[in-house]
């Protein structure tokens, strides 16, 4: 009986009366980047490199499969290595941002993006490590499958990161806003 009354009150409650307890915490709305260069967030600038390089690995794998030219297998090795290393650099700046800005830390979506990005880094590292053992033999069939999976996972990670920027305005400078 008591549960039904409480449920009825919740259903009939005015939406303006409902309060998100996390939103009321101090610094919840402080979302500006602290890891920045001339006001530009480093994480946002650095993520473009692993994203592009991950796509390049898949492209190199497809071209190697199509042409059989060793150049493409070697290019895939280098692109995979640089995707991983730039991913680590972007990850370090993103982690520093996550841990240093309370408004970012208090959002579950930030932690979701963090976990997915760490998983992506492990995939990128696996792709590079697999190729270090023999880049030509690594491409077919497993290298190209790992590369395709990495590209899909990159899109998934990027979608969550973009959601943080566009929906929550994380990392967006508050200069000039009222």
Walk me through this protein's architecture.
The chain is mainly alpha-helical. The chain has one domain (39-168). The protein is built from seven helices and two strands; from the N terminus they run H-E-E-H-H-H-H-H-H. The protein has helices spanning 2-12, 42-46, 48-67, 70-100, 102-105, 108-132, 135-168, and strands spanning 36-37, 40-41. It has a two-stranded antiparallel sheet.
Short description:
This protein has 178 residues and is mostly helical. The chain has seven helices and two strands, in the order H-E-E-H-H-H-H-H-H.
Tell me the layout of helices and strands:
Layout: H1 2-12, E1 36-37, E2 40-41, H2 42-46, H3 48-67, H4 70-100, H5 102-105, H6 108-132, H7 135-168
Antiparallel strand pairs: 1-2
- The tally of beta strands, per DSSP, is 2
Largest sheet: 2 strands, antiparallel
- What share of the residues lie within helices? over 70%
**What percentage of amino acids are in beta strands?**
under 5%
Briefly note the structural class of the backbone: mainly alpha
Mean pLDDT: 87
**Spans where pLDDT lies below 50 across 5 or more residues:** none
With strands numbered from the N-terminus, the spatial order across the biggest sheet is: 1-2
What is the first-to-last residue Cα distance? Answer: 48 Å
């Amino acid at each position: 009986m008591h549960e039904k009354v409480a449920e009825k009150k919740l259903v009939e409650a005015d939406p303006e009366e409902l309060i998100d307890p996390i939103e009321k915490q101090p610094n919840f709305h402080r979302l500006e980047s602290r890891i920045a260069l001339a006001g530009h967030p480093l994480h946002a600038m650095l993520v473009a490199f692993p994203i592009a390089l991950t796509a390049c690995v898949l492209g190199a794998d497809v071209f190697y499969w199509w042409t059989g030219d060793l150049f493409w297998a070697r290019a895939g090795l280098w692109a995979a290595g640089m995707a991983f290393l730039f991913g680590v650099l972007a990850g370090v700046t993103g982690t520093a941002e996550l841990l240093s800005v309370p408004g970012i830390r208090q959002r579950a979506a930030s932690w979701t993006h963090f976990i997915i990005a760490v998983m992506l880094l492990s995939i990128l590292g696996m792709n590079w490590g697999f190729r270090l053992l023999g880049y030509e033999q690594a491409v077919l069939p497993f290298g190209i499958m790992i590369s395709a999976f990495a590209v899909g996972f990159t899109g998934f990670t990027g979608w969550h990161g973009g959601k943080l920027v566009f929906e929550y305005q994380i990392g967006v400078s508050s200069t000039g806003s009222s």
